[in-house]
Each structure stands twice: as structure tokens, then as C-alpha cells.
Specification:
Helix 3 runs antiparallel to helix 4 and helix 5 packs across helix 7. It is built from 13 helices and 60 strands. The chain has a five-stranded mixed β-sheet, with no helix packed on it. By secondary structure, the protein is α+β, with helices and mostly antiparallel strands. It starts with 13 loop residues before the first strand and ends with a helix. A hairpin with a 5-residue loop joins strand 18 and strand 19.
Length: about 950
Amino acid sequence: MTMASNTLQFKTNYAVSSKIEPFYKGGKVQINKDEKYILCTCGTRVNILEIATGQLTRSIEQDDQEDITSFALSPDDEFLVTASRALVLKQWDWRDGVCTRSWRAIHNTPVASMTFDPSSTLLATGGCDGTIKLWDVLKQYCTHNLKGSAGVVHLVQFHPDSSVLQLFSSSLDCGIRVWDLRSSLCVCVLESHYSAVTSLAFTPDGSTMVSSGRDKICTVWDLKSREVVRTVPVYEAVEAVVLLPEEGDFSQLGVRAKGLHFITAGSKGVLRLWEAGSARCVFSQTPQVSTPPPSGEEAGPEEEWSQRSLTYCIHLPSSARLAIVTAEHNILLYQLPALALQQQFVGYNDEVLDVKFLGKGDSHIVVATNSPQLKVFELASRSCQILYGHTDTVLALDIFRKGSMFASCSKDNTVRVWRMDTLSGEVRCVAQGSGHANAVGSISCSRLKESFVVSGSLDCTVKVWDVPEQQEGAEEAELQTLSVRTTEKAHDKDVNGVAVSPNDKLLASGSQDRTVKVWSLADLALLGVCRGHRRGVWSVQFSPMDQVLASASADGSVKLWGLQDFSCLKTFEGHDASVLKVVFVSRGSQLLTSGSDGLVKLWTIKTNECVKTLDAHQDKVWGLHASRKDDLAVTGSADSSIMLWQDVSEIELAEEQAQQEDQILKQQELSNLLQEKKFLKALGLAISLDQPHTALRVIKEIRRGRDGEQQLENTLLRLRRDQKESVLRYCAVWNTNARSCLDAQAVVQVLLRHHPPEELLQYQGARNILEALVPYTDRHMQRIGRLLQASMFLDYMWQKMRVTGHSSVETQGESMDTSPVAPATPSPLFIIDTSPSLEGERGRQEDEEGGEKEEEEEDATEENQEDDADVSVAGGKAGKNGKTERGREETEMAEESASGESSGEEDEGADAGAGDGRKRENGIGWSSEALPLQMELIR
């Protein structure tokens, strides 16, 4: 296996550069006054989408995590009010996302509908309990409580003239109630519909109203006489009605005479224009594709168009546009008067099953979701094309080498080929093939020329389809047919993945039967079988550089197979669940894999190592593709999100090198500051580097100098508040070590002395820091207490000890001095004994003292040796005589003690006498070490 060049820079990380996430999952849609933003609900949030860019600018979310049941934006764009299932109304500053007011809705059940009056002062809420409440949003109180509706009040709307003070509502009884707000009474019920009333539209002067319903009629009302002017049968369940402006030339839509015209949107999925006077449909949109009914069934209009039915229609008067909302949560903008499609926004993708880069320079992505429609997103503007053609869920996609053509396969047992116009970016279907007996789950395109596609199906077969050459100047509506070149029963179970080799000579197929098979594309002859996976194989991929094949399996592993003998070369294990997709990157030297654990992993083939794990999805990652330039990757997941990943390996390497250089410079600067005694700058630099150990060095340097405590106090008090917060946080770490606890306590002492507790508690994380300081401080205090007790015991023992070296006459009436006064000339360790042996009693005392000191030394070095031989040189006596002399000396010491000679203190010569106490043997003596050791402990 030939690996990539050594000069190749391996990838180390990807970062999310952009994402396409759900922003609308059904419910109300509203557009603000200046027509720049679309407001729509998505679970617990109200999302605000900028129309010009398609970007989600802000999300307003309920604190209680309850779903939003309704919302309303005031006509002057000042107030946004939301109602949740918690029966709470919240008023928002929607541009900043700040909740300015919250109050109980008083309704016994959730609020189903909500609207503002034209003056933006009154808010009407219709509840599921059949009541309507009006709120004065300026004075903040409930003004009306209107009762009498039957069931859920799903529609409330004010009269367009605010001086009329009328409210219109509709509930389950199919009538339109007119409320007089002066008397709080229902003045009449407009009865015409036999099903739920879905929308109301008023003329500018408020004299005429058009109502629509799911009973397939629209009714024109004269509001002055409250009578029906015209009933217009529209032959579809209408969800929204919009009046066409009286000014303007709409001859393109078939308007020939003046009068009332209105546009309906409903279950058929097309916009239609009606003339109220004659009840005629003067214009109807042409559907992009007609979805045939299921085989063996006669589908009615509602069933036929159920997936494409329209739910909202909003008129944008300033820009002369219509905003349409479909049942699949797509928002479409049409330009009047020609009703030309201008923009499309996909609010909810459901499960993303596959995603591929498309177009010149990978400017677009094509996405297969849990839907018959394909979606093509332009990455720069997020504008979307919705492609109609398949009649069931699209399962897989693949791209031809040039990037302008791609193929799709679906549950409808068909394969389609699509082409993108390089100039306009418009995508259309150019060919279709059918022949599989079951859903087609995988597809792969030819690599060298746009000549064929290969499909794998749940019917266990693999088919090779010839793609007809595209004729120049062919009709756009002409749909060519894909012809089958070869068919082969490839596996015993579902074929989950197929792949064509870079030279168009080999085909690999992976199946649920746990095998990978390699075929000759010329005649679909079987060349070899790769066995080794313990569960089904989901994806196969040829290396672009080497003669190897990668396979991803439900057993959680990825295997690399050699094409010479079809043996397993390497196995990559790391996913906790099924591996769904595998692609080669870095010229075949690395792998990208995605799994049902929601993770994307980057592997280096040479080292068998997982370099990076990318965690951004919450569900199975079905789609994974790398761009031709190898700098981008795109993933699609069952959590409805699409992530665009950018290779940031070189960026991170450059940042790391720059950071290292910066660290070196700052460390040098820190050393210079310490050398120059500029402690304040040094401490500030250590804090900016976030290096507690370096900051401790600075603190120790400050305390080591002259007037260290005062210098420390001056330095700490000159720090900024954020720097003091950092130092206090460091103290919690320093205090855990006995070597640095004194420095930590010194810093804490300065802060406590000069800052009141109330101020310290305002520091970030102050409570946690103090909780960490207290236990270790208690431990240090206990240790110091034990040392103090031990030193007092030594002092007590010293007071009770008698240091010999003077005669009882010399030490009579003198006390012992325990102060650590060193002798003028230290005693030598080895001395030559030149004193005569006639010193008598004092010599014997020194000898015995030296013998006792020698015993202490020998006990320290040799364990459990107690029968030391005491030798007395004075008087020429040894052995037994020495012990006799010791007994005599002890008797003399007892007599001195009894005579009151010891008064708790010794004379100044006691130290010298103790130091001179030594044992002489053969002319050489050893000085005592026990006494200086005790003195050192006491000091």
C-alpha cells in the first residue's frame, strides 16, 4: 500500500464554520412592520429570521422551558408578547431579547390565539377555555373579559379602524362573533361557514370583510349591514386569504376589471386569485410537479396535495410581496404582480439522510431529508431551492466529478439524475430510471465521465444505469430515461452502500449480510469478497490514491481492505455504536467517519490513531461528505441540523507557534522585571499569563526583600479588581501546600485588612475560594499548635536538666541562661587533651559528661546497643572505675539539687561548660552534639 507523500500536512482538527438548524416547527408566523424580519415559533422559542440574509439573528426563549402556544408583535414593532403552556404572558423587547414584563394570563387553559389592535395599545388573547381577554399593554391591566364562545378561540382579530372598537373572533361553532368593546357584548354572529373559519381579511376602509374556511368556500361580508355579499366556492380547504391591493397593474394575474380580488392558499398547495364579484378564479399557479396517487387508489385533491398544502399567506405591502408558509414548514416569498418565486427558507428538515457538496467551487449543498423533496442550499446566502420529483423519501445522493450533476435514489424504487445550471444555479431533473423491486438505498456516480450510475437496493440487487448524453438546446421539460446496462443479485440481504473506483473499473458493495464484495464494472463479475465485520456494512469507499477500500459497519469498526488479496489491512475502532459513513481525506492518508453516536472522528491511517473527535450533533450522523479542495466537510444528522466544518489545522498550528513565541517573550520580560525589582508589573504579567506558580515566585521575591510585608501590601493594593480576584483564586491553590501556605496567608491577610467582607464577597467565585481556604488553614493552625506544644515540652525539659561542667561551688546561686548565645570561639570537633590528670573532681565530671554524650550519639546510630563501654581517662581509670565515677557524679548532682543550687536558670558559662564536656581517650576527645541540637530546636 503506497501512502501519501511525506510532505503532506495531516489534518488535526475541524471547526464548525456554519450550521443550518431548524427554526420553525409549525404555528404562527408574523413579519415585522419594516418587513426585514420573520418571527416564528419553534418549541420553547420565538426565532427571528433576517429576510435579506436568511440568518437567524435572535431566539427569544421562555425561562420555564414551556412551549410557546401563541405570540403577537404590535403593529408599531414595539412589543412582542408570548404565551406559554404555563399560562404566563411575557412582554419582550424583541430586538434585545429582554423580558420587560411578565404576568398571569388568567385563562384556565393555554392561550390559542393573540393579536394587537391597530393602535398597539390593546392586546386580545383567545383561550382554549372559550374566553377572550383584552389587555391594556400600556397601563398593564385587563380591560375586558368576553365570554360566550364555544370551545377553543382559535381566531381573534380587531377591526382595522381603531375608532370602531370591534373585535372579531371564531371558535369551534364555525361562526364569526362580533364584539362591541364599549359594551363588552357580542352584537352578532356571522354564520356562513360549516367548518372552522381560518382567516379574515378586511378592506382598508373596513366596510368589507372576506372570510375563509376549511369548508372550501370564501364568504364576502358587508360589515355595515352584516350580510353576506357573495359566497365563492374555491374547491379546496382554504387556510389563508389575502386581499389584492386596489392600486397596481395585476394584468399578469388575469385581473381585467376593477373590483374586489383576493388570493387564497390552501390544501392544493398553489396560490389562486379570485374575483369576488363574479366568483371566478382568474389565476392559478402551475404546480412544479404533479404527485400521482398511490397505485391502486384514487386520491382526492386533499390527499394528493397534503404534503404541499399551504398554511399561511401574509401580504407585505411595502415590498409588494407575499409570504407563504407550507405544511412542510417552508417559508416562500413571491414577488407581485407576477408571483415570481424570490426566496425560500426551510424551517424544518426533519431527519437529514444524506448531504453532498454541489456546484462549481462547492458553492451549494444538496440535502436529502425525510421527505420526497430535495433541498439545494446556497452556502453564501442560505437561499434554498426545493426540488420536486420523487414521490417518496429520498434515501441517498452522489455527485459526479465536475460537481454540476448529481443522482438521487428513493423509496419510490426510482433513480433520478439532476443537473445544475452553472450560470443561474437552477437545478432540474434531466433523467429518471425505474426497475428496482424495492426501495433504492444507495447510489454511486461514475468518476471519470458522466456516463453511468450504480444503485443498490433493498431487493438485494445492484444495477448499473447508463446516463444519456445531454443534447445542447434540449427542452427543459424533456425528461430522459435511464437504461439499465447490467443487473446482478449481489447479496443475501439489503445493499446498504455502493462505491465506484476512481478509474471506473471496479465496484464495491456493502450489505446487511456483513460482507463487502468487489465487482468488475464491465460485466459485474465478482472479483473478491471481504469478510470480517460482525454486523451489517453501512458504507464503502475507495481510496483516491491507493489500491485500498474502506468499509464502515454496524459493529462500530472501520476496516481497510487491500484490493490485491481482499485481506483486512487495518481496523479502526473508537465509535461506541454503528459507523454510518466513511470518506477519505488528505489525499487518502486520513479518514473521516460518522456514527449513530452523533460523533465524527478523524483518523490517521498510518498510525491507526483517532486524531480528533468532533461532537456537535445530538443524533445519528447519516450524511458526511468532503469538498474537492479538501478544506471543508459537511455533515447531516437525524437531529435536523446540517454542520459545515472547516479544516483549521494550519490555523491552529500558526496560533500555537505564535502563542509559544509570545510565552517566551513574556517569560523573558518577567525575568527582567524581577531582576529590576518591578514587582507590580511582574505580578500583573504573571496574572495575565494565568500562571499561579509564576505569581507565587513574584510573591516570594517581594517578601524576601527588605520591608517585604510592607512592599507586598503596597503591591497588592495597587492591583485592579480583576487581578485581585485572580490572586485570591491562586491563594486557594497555594494554601494547599505547606511550602507556600505562608505566602498565601500573607496575601489573604492584606486583602482582609484593607477590604471589607462585603466587597470581597462580590469577587467572582469568592465563596468557593473561601470555602477552599478554610479547611487547609485549619490544618495549618493545628500543625503550628502541635509544634508549639512540642517546643514548650522541650523548654520544660531544658529547665529540668542540669548542664554539668562547673563545680557546685562555681554554680552556686547561679541560674541557667536558655538564650541562644553562641560561644565566642566554637569548640573544635577533635581536640588534643593536654590537661594533666590531676584536675581531680572536675576532670572526672567532664569525663562522665563526655561519656553520657557519647552514649547519646551511639544510640542515634546503632539501635538497641546499650552496653557501651565508658572509659575514664582522668586518674588512669577505665571500665568499671568509670561507671563508679559516674555513680559518684550522679550522687553529687542529687546533692546539688537538694541544696537548692538549681533555681531554673544557669549561668552564662553553662553553655561553654556543656560544649567542653567531652570524653578523652588516647589523647583524642569528641564534643557533645545533643545540647546544640536542643538549642536549635528551641530557637
